[in-house]
Amino acid sequence: MKKLNFKVLKTDIIHKGRVFDLKIDEIIYDSGNKGFRETAVHPGGAVVLPVKENGDIIFVNQFRFPHDQFVLELPAGKLDFNEDPFICAKRELTEETGYSSEKITKLGAIFTTPGFSNEILHIYLAKELIEGKHNREEGEFGMEIVSLSLKEAEEKIKSGEIVDAKTICGILYYKLSLDN
Amino acid sequence: MKKLNFKVLKTDIIHKGRVFDLKIDEIIYDSGNKGFRETAVHPGGAVVLPVKENGDIIFVNQFRFPHDQFVLELPAGKLDFNEDPFICAKRELTEETGYSSEKITKLGAIFTTPGFSNEILHIYLAKELIEGKHNREEGEFGMEIVSLSLKEAEEKIKSGEIVDAKTICGILYYKLSLDN
Asked: What letters, b where the CB count within 10 A reaches 16 and e where it falls short, cover B137-156?
Protein backbone atom coordinates (compact mmCIF):
# COMPACT_ATOMS: atom_id res chain seq x y z
CA MET A 1 0.00 0.00 0.00
CA LYS A 2 1.34 3.39 -1.02
CA LYS A 3 1.80 6.06 1.65
CA LEU A 4 -1.15 8.44 1.74
CA ASN A 5 -0.90 12.23 2.13
CA PHE A 6 -3.72 12.69 4.65
CA LYS A 7 -5.12 11.50 7.96
CA VAL A 8 -8.74 11.24 9.10
CA LEU A 9 -9.47 13.67 11.96
CA LYS A 10 -13.13 12.89 12.62
CA THR A 11 -15.88 10.59 11.31
CA ASP A 12 -19.60 11.32 11.61
CA ILE A 13 -22.59 9.32 10.41
CA ILE A 14 -24.93 12.21 9.73
CA HIS A 15 -27.84 10.12 8.39
CA LYS A 16 -28.82 6.49 9.02
CA GLY A 17 -30.80 5.55 5.94
CA ARG A 18 -33.00 2.80 4.61
CA VAL A 19 -30.68 2.08 1.66
CA PHE A 20 -27.47 3.85 2.67
CA ASP A 21 -25.96 5.90 5.49
CA LEU A 22 -24.24 9.23 4.91
CA LYS A 23 -20.79 9.37 6.50
CA ILE A 24 -18.65 12.51 6.60
CA ASP A 25 -14.94 12.26 7.31
CA GLU A 26 -12.88 15.33 8.06
CA ILE A 27 -9.33 14.87 6.80
CA ILE A 28 -6.09 16.80 7.11
CA TYR A 29 -3.42 16.66 4.42
CA ASP A 30 0.31 16.58 5.23
CA SER A 31 0.31 20.18 3.90
CA GLY A 32 -1.99 21.23 6.75
CA ASN A 33 -4.96 21.79 4.41
CA LYS A 34 -8.21 20.26 5.60
CA GLY A 35 -10.95 18.62 3.59
CA PHE A 36 -14.06 16.49 3.80
CA ARG A 37 -14.99 13.15 2.29
CA GLU A 38 -18.66 12.23 1.89
CA THR A 39 -19.44 8.54 1.59
CA ALA A 40 -22.75 6.83 0.87
CA VAL A 41 -22.19 3.73 3.01
CA HIS A 42 -24.04 0.91 1.29
CA PRO A 43 -24.34 -2.78 2.29
CA GLY A 44 -23.67 -3.94 -1.29
CA GLY A 45 -25.82 -6.17 -3.42
CA ALA A 46 -26.11 -8.99 -5.90
CA VAL A 47 -26.88 -8.97 -9.62
CA VAL A 48 -28.03 -11.96 -11.66
CA LEU A 49 -27.60 -12.58 -15.38
CA PRO A 50 -30.19 -15.32 -16.02
CA VAL A 51 -29.76 -17.19 -19.30
CA LYS A 52 -32.62 -19.25 -20.75
CA GLU A 53 -32.12 -22.48 -22.64
CA ASN A 54 -32.49 -20.63 -25.99
CA GLY A 55 -29.67 -18.26 -24.94
CA ASP A 56 -31.90 -15.28 -24.15
CA ILE A 57 -30.97 -13.18 -21.15
CA ILE A 58 -33.70 -12.07 -18.74
CA PHE A 59 -33.87 -8.38 -17.83
CA VAL A 60 -36.34 -6.42 -15.76
CA ASN A 61 -37.73 -3.04 -16.67
CA GLN A 62 -38.32 -1.17 -13.43
CA PHE A 63 -39.12 2.30 -12.21
CA ARG A 64 -36.08 4.03 -10.68
CA PHE A 65 -36.97 6.91 -8.43
CA PRO A 66 -33.66 8.83 -8.67
CA HIS A 67 -33.97 9.04 -12.47
CA ASP A 68 -37.79 9.30 -12.51
CA GLN A 69 -37.98 6.75 -15.31
CA PHE A 70 -38.10 3.05 -16.08
CA VAL A 71 -34.66 1.47 -16.47
CA LEU A 72 -33.88 -1.85 -18.20
CA GLU A 73 -31.61 -3.83 -15.88
CA LEU A 74 -30.48 -7.27 -14.84
CA PRO A 75 -32.37 -8.50 -11.75
CA ALA A 76 -30.58 -7.26 -8.64
CA GLY A 77 -31.05 -6.34 -5.03
CA LYS A 78 -29.45 -5.08 -1.87
CA LEU A 79 -27.85 -7.48 0.60
CA ASP A 80 -29.71 -7.99 3.83
CA PHE A 81 -27.54 -7.42 6.92
CA ASN A 82 -24.56 -9.82 6.76
CA GLU A 83 -26.16 -11.73 3.89
CA ASP A 84 -24.05 -13.92 1.59
CA PRO A 85 -24.26 -12.31 -1.90
CA PHE A 86 -24.93 -15.75 -3.41
CA ILE A 87 -28.06 -16.15 -1.23
CA CYS A 88 -29.12 -12.63 -2.17
CA ALA A 89 -28.69 -13.44 -5.87
CA LYS A 90 -30.90 -16.56 -5.58
CA ARG A 91 -33.54 -14.61 -3.68
CA GLU A 92 -33.63 -11.61 -6.00
CA LEU A 93 -33.78 -13.80 -9.11
CA THR A 94 -36.95 -15.45 -7.84
CA GLU A 95 -38.50 -12.35 -6.25
CA GLU A 96 -38.11 -10.23 -9.36
CA THR A 97 -38.52 -12.74 -12.21
CA GLY A 98 -40.17 -15.83 -10.72
CA TYR A 99 -37.38 -18.00 -12.12
CA SER A 100 -35.16 -20.07 -9.86
CA SER A 101 -31.88 -21.82 -10.56
CA GLU A 102 -29.56 -24.35 -8.98
CA LYS A 103 -26.81 -23.39 -11.45
CA ILE A 104 -25.64 -20.03 -10.18
CA THR A 105 -21.96 -19.16 -10.61
CA LYS A 106 -19.99 -16.00 -9.88
CA LEU A 107 -18.97 -13.79 -12.80
CA GLY A 108 -17.31 -10.97 -10.88
CA ALA A 109 -17.77 -8.01 -8.56
CA ILE A 110 -17.85 -4.29 -9.25
CA PHE A 111 -17.37 -1.01 -7.42
CA THR A 112 -20.31 1.02 -8.76
CA THR A 113 -19.20 4.50 -7.68
CA PRO A 114 -15.81 4.41 -5.93
CA GLY A 115 -15.72 8.21 -5.82
CA PHE A 116 -18.54 8.56 -3.30
CA SER A 117 -19.85 5.15 -2.21
CA ASN A 118 -18.40 1.87 -0.96
CA GLU A 119 -21.10 -0.15 -2.76
CA ILE A 120 -19.89 -3.48 -4.15
CA LEU A 121 -22.17 -5.52 -6.41
CA HIS A 122 -21.53 -9.23 -6.90
CA ILE A 123 -22.54 -10.46 -10.34
CA TYR A 124 -23.75 -14.02 -10.95
CA LEU A 125 -24.68 -16.13 -13.95
CA ALA A 126 -27.84 -18.26 -13.54
CA LYS A 127 -28.53 -21.17 -15.89
CA GLU A 128 -31.00 -24.10 -16.08
CA LEU A 129 -33.83 -21.78 -15.05
CA ILE A 130 -37.03 -23.14 -13.55
CA GLU A 131 -40.16 -21.06 -14.10
CA GLY A 132 -42.23 -19.99 -11.11
CA LYS A 133 -44.08 -17.05 -9.66
CA HIS A 134 -42.40 -13.76 -8.79
CA ASN A 135 -42.88 -12.09 -5.43
CA ARG A 136 -42.29 -8.39 -5.97
CA GLU A 137 -42.42 -5.70 -3.32
CA GLU A 138 -44.81 -2.75 -3.40
CA GLY A 139 -41.89 -0.54 -4.43
CA GLU A 140 -41.35 -2.74 -7.50
CA PHE A 141 -44.75 -1.91 -9.03
CA GLY A 142 -44.84 -1.99 -12.82
CA MET A 143 -41.75 -4.17 -13.11
CA GLU A 144 -41.75 -6.22 -16.33
CA ILE A 145 -39.61 -9.02 -17.66
CA VAL A 146 -37.81 -8.49 -20.97
CA SER A 147 -35.94 -11.35 -22.70
CA LEU A 148 -33.18 -10.43 -25.14
CA SER A 149 -30.48 -12.32 -27.00
CA LEU A 150 -26.91 -11.26 -26.23
CA LYS A 151 -26.79 -9.59 -29.66
CA GLU A 152 -30.02 -7.67 -28.97
CA ALA A 153 -28.69 -6.58 -25.56
CA GLU A 154 -25.48 -5.32 -27.19
CA GLU A 155 -27.53 -3.38 -29.73
CA LYS A 156 -29.49 -1.77 -26.89
CA ILE A 157 -26.24 -0.81 -25.16
CA LYS A 158 -24.99 0.81 -28.37
CA SER A 159 -28.30 2.60 -28.95
CA GLY A 160 -28.50 3.87 -25.37
CA GLU A 161 -31.62 1.84 -24.46
CA ILE A 162 -29.57 -0.05 -21.85
CA VAL A 163 -27.66 2.43 -19.68
CA ASP A 164 -27.51 0.70 -16.31
CA ALA A 165 -23.85 0.21 -15.33
CA LYS A 166 -24.19 -3.12 -13.48
CA THR A 167 -26.12 -4.51 -16.46
CA ILE A 168 -23.47 -3.40 -18.97
CA CYS A 169 -20.75 -4.85 -16.69
CA GLY A 170 -22.72 -8.11 -16.44
CA ILE A 171 -22.89 -8.35 -20.23
CA LEU A 172 -19.12 -7.88 -20.57
CA TYR A 173 -18.40 -10.48 -17.87
CA TYR A 174 -20.74 -12.87 -19.66
CA LYS A 175 -19.07 -12.25 -23.03
CA LEU A 176 -15.63 -12.80 -21.49
CA SER A 177 -16.83 -16.04 -19.87
CA LEU A 178 -17.97 -17.29 -23.31
CA ASP A 179 -14.48 -16.65 -24.77
CA ASN A 180 -13.01 -19.41 -22.60
CA MET B 1 -44.85 6.31 -19.30
CA LYS B 2 -46.58 3.68 -17.19
CA LYS B 3 -48.85 4.78 -14.35
CA LEU B 4 -47.05 4.72 -11.01
CA ASN B 5 -48.51 3.48 -7.73
CA PHE B 6 -47.28 6.30 -5.50
CA LYS B 7 -47.12 10.06 -5.07
CA VAL B 8 -44.43 12.21 -3.46
CA LEU B 9 -45.71 13.92 -0.30
CA LYS B 10 -42.62 15.87 0.73
CA THR B 11 -39.03 16.46 -0.44
CA ASP B 12 -36.17 17.50 1.83
CA ILE B 13 -32.52 18.13 1.04
CA ILE B 14 -31.05 17.05 4.36
CA HIS B 15 -27.40 17.57 3.43
CA LYS B 16 -25.77 19.86 0.86
CA GLY B 17 -22.50 18.13 0.04
CA ARG B 18 -19.24 18.74 -1.76
CA VAL B 19 -19.79 15.79 -4.13
CA PHE B 20 -23.50 15.01 -3.68
CA ASP B 21 -26.57 16.21 -1.80
CA LEU B 22 -28.74 13.85 0.22
CA LYS B 23 -32.43 14.19 -0.68
CA ILE B 24 -35.22 12.40 1.16
CA ASP B 25 -38.65 12.04 -0.43
CA GLU B 26 -41.61 10.86 1.55
CA ILE B 27 -44.00 8.92 -0.67
CA ILE B 28 -47.49 7.48 -0.29
CA TYR B 29 -48.59 4.42 -2.22
CA ASP B 30 -52.12 4.07 -3.65
CA SER B 31 -52.61 1.47 -0.88
CA GLY B 32 -52.13 4.17 1.75
CA ASN B 33 -48.75 2.78 2.85
CA LYS B 34 -46.04 5.38 3.21
CA GLY B 35 -42.35 5.08 2.43
CA PHE B 36 -39.14 7.04 1.95
CA ARG B 37 -36.76 7.34 -0.97
CA GLU B 38 -33.15 8.42 -0.31
CA THR B 39 -31.28 9.88 -3.27
CA ALA B 40 -27.65 10.89 -3.55
CA VAL B 41 -28.12 13.83 -5.91
CA HIS B 42 -24.99 14.02 -8.04
CA PRO B 43 -24.08 16.45 -10.86
CA GLY B 44 -22.81 13.61 -13.07
CA GLY B 45 -19.43 13.28 -14.68
CA ALA B 46 -17.32 12.35 -17.66
CA VAL B 47 -15.10 9.33 -18.28
CA VAL B 48 -12.39 9.10 -20.94
CA LEU B 49 -11.00 6.00 -22.62
CA PRO B 50 -7.72 7.29 -24.08
CA VAL B 51 -6.16 5.07 -26.76
CA LYS B 52 -2.51 5.46 -27.71
CA GLU B 53 -1.18 4.97 -31.23
CA ASN B 54 -0.01 1.43 -30.34
CA GLY B 55 -3.54 0.56 -29.19
CA ASP B 56 -2.83 0.70 -25.46
CA ILE B 57 -5.51 2.19 -23.24
CA ILE B 58 -4.50 4.63 -20.50
CA PHE B 59 -5.81 3.98 -16.99
CA VAL B 60 -5.12 5.72 -13.69
CA ASN B 61 -4.52 3.96 -10.41
CA GLN B 62 -5.90 6.21 -7.71
CA PHE B 63 -6.75 6.09 -4.02
CA ARG B 64 -10.49 5.85 -3.40
CA PHE B 65 -11.52 6.90 0.05
CA PRO B 66 -14.83 4.95 0.27
CA HIS B 67 -13.01 1.66 -0.41
CA ASP B 68 -9.78 2.63 1.41
CA GLN B 69 -7.69 1.29 -1.45
CA PHE B 70 -6.20 2.15 -4.82
CA VAL B 71 -8.54 1.45 -7.75
CA LEU B 72 -7.53 1.04 -11.40
CA GLU B 73 -9.89 3.20 -13.47
CA LEU B 74 -10.30 5.16 -16.65
CA PRO B 75 -9.63 8.88 -16.13
CA ALA B 76 -12.83 10.56 -14.98
CA GLY B 77 -14.22 13.47 -13.05
CA LYS B 78 -17.28 15.24 -11.80
CA LEU B 79 -19.00 17.89 -13.90
CA ASP B 80 -18.61 21.45 -12.72
CA PHE B 81 -21.94 23.27 -12.32
CA ASN B 82 -23.75 23.23 -15.70
CA GLU B 83 -20.60 21.98 -17.45
CA ASP B 84 -20.83 20.23 -20.82
CA PRO B 85 -19.63 16.62 -20.27
CA PHE B 86 -17.43 16.89 -23.37
CA ILE B 87 -15.55 19.85 -21.83
CA CYS B 88 -15.25 17.93 -18.56
CA ALA B 89 -13.83 14.91 -20.42
CA LYS B 90 -11.16 17.06 -22.14
CA ARG B 91 -10.26 18.70 -18.83
CA GLU B 92 -10.05 15.49 -16.79
CA LEU B 93 -7.98 13.72 -19.44
CA THR B 94 -5.32 16.40 -19.21
CA GLU B 95 -5.56 16.99 -15.46
CA GLU B 96 -5.18 13.31 -14.59
CA THR B 97 -2.91 11.97 -17.34
CA GLY B 98 -1.21 14.99 -18.95
CA TYR B 99 -2.42 13.83 -22.37
CA SER B 100 -4.68 15.99 -24.49
CA SER B 101 -6.68 15.13 -27.59
CA GLU B 102 -8.62 16.86 -30.36
CA LYS B 103 -10.22 13.53 -31.34
CA ILE B 104 -12.73 12.93 -28.57
CA THR B 105 -15.97 11.15 -29.48
CA LYS B 106 -18.88 9.93 -27.37
CA LEU B 107 -19.17 6.22 -26.64
CA GLY B 108 -22.23 6.25 -24.37
CA ALA B 109 -23.65 7.22 -21.01
CA ILE B 110 -24.36 5.15 -17.92
CA PHE B 111 -26.50 5.28 -14.80
CA THR B 112 -24.00 4.15 -12.15
CA THR B 113 -26.42 3.36 -9.30
CA PRO B 114 -30.05 3.94 -10.34
CA GLY B 115 -31.26 2.48 -7.05
CA PHE B 116 -29.99 5.35 -4.92
CA SER B 117 -28.34 8.04 -7.03
CA ASN B 118 -29.17 10.03 -10.15
CA GLU B 119 -25.51 10.07 -11.24
CA ILE B 120 -24.99 9.85 -15.02
CA LEU B 121 -21.50 9.36 -16.43
CA HIS B 122 -20.77 10.26 -20.04
CA ILE B 123 -18.09 8.05 -21.60
CA TYR B 124 -15.76 9.30 -24.34
CA LEU B 125 -13.09 7.81 -26.56
CA ALA B 126 -9.94 9.94 -26.97
CA LYS B 127 -7.51 9.26 -29.83
CA GLU B 128 -4.47 11.01 -31.36
CA LEU B 129 -3.14 11.80 -27.91
CA ILE B 130 -0.63 14.56 -27.35
CA GLU B 131 1.70 14.15 -24.38
CA GLY B 132 1.91 16.90 -21.80
CA LYS B 133 2.04 17.52 -18.08
CA HIS B 134 -0.69 16.47 -15.71
CA ASN B 135 -2.18 18.87 -13.18
CA ARG B 136 -3.54 16.71 -10.35
CA GLU B 137 -5.32 17.98 -7.26
CA GLU B 138 -4.08 17.44 -3.71
CA GLY B 139 -6.80 14.78 -3.30
CA GLU B 140 -5.34 12.85 -6.23
CA PHE B 141 -2.01 12.16 -4.47
CA GLY B 142 -0.32 8.93 -5.51
CA MET B 143 -2.23 8.66 -8.78
CA GLU B 144 -0.27 6.71 -11.40
CA ILE B 145 -0.75 6.05 -15.08
CA VAL B 146 -1.06 2.44 -16.24
CA SER B 147 -1.12 1.55 -19.96
CA LEU B 148 -2.73 -1.74 -20.95
CA SER B 149 -3.72 -3.36 -24.22
CA LEU B 150 -7.42 -4.17 -24.60
CA LYS B 151 -6.55 -7.85 -24.10
CA GLU B 152 -4.64 -7.09 -20.89
CA ALA B 153 -7.52 -4.96 -19.63
CA GLU B 154 -9.96 -7.80 -20.29
CA GLU B 155 -7.68 -10.20 -18.41
CA LYS B 156 -7.67 -7.80 -15.46
CA ILE B 157 -11.47 -7.63 -15.54
CA LYS B 158 -11.65 -11.44 -15.49
CA SER B 159 -9.09 -11.70 -12.69
CA GLY B 160 -10.78 -9.03 -10.57
CA GLU B 161 -7.90 -6.53 -10.77
CA ILE B 162 -10.22 -4.11 -12.61
CA VAL B 163 -13.50 -3.78 -10.69
CA ASP B 164 -14.54 -0.19 -11.37
CA ALA B 165 -17.95 -0.20 -13.07
CA LYS B 166 -17.48 2.85 -15.34
CA THR B 167 -14.17 1.37 -16.52
CA ILE B 168 -15.71 -2.03 -17.33
CA CYS B 169 -18.58 -0.25 -19.13
CA GLY B 170 -16.05 1.85 -21.06
CA ILE B 171 -14.23 -1.29 -22.19
CA LEU B 172 -17.47 -2.87 -23.46
CA TYR B 173 -18.48 0.32 -25.32
CA TYR B 174 -15.02 0.40 -26.88
CA LYS B 175 -15.21 -3.28 -27.93
CA LEU B 176 -18.65 -2.72 -29.46
CA SER B 177 -17.37 0.35 -31.34
CA LEU B 178 -14.57 -1.80 -32.83
CA ASP B 179 -17.13 -4.33 -34.14
CA ASN B 180 -18.50 -1.76 -36.58
From this structure: eebbbebeebebeeeebbeb
ipTM of this complex: 0.96
Q: Which of B28, B42, B96, B117 best tests the A interface by mutation, with the highest count of A CBs <10 A? A: B117
- Each residue's pLDDT tens digit, A115-128: 999 999 999 999 99
Specify the 3-state DSSP secondary structure of B129. Answer: coil
Domain limits, chain A? 6-41, 45-178
Which chain A residues contact residue B163 at CB under 8 A? 108-111, 120
Q: Options 3.90.79.10, 3.40.50.1360, 1.20.140.10, 3.40.50.150; which CATH number does B45-178 get?
A: 3.90.79.10
Instruction: Determine, for residues A5 and B160 on separate chains, whether the beta-carbon distance falls below 8 Å.
Output: no
Is the CB of B5 less than 8 angstroms away from the CB of A117? no
pTM score, whole prediction? 0.96
* pLDDT tens sequence across B110-133: 999 999 999 999 999 999 999 988
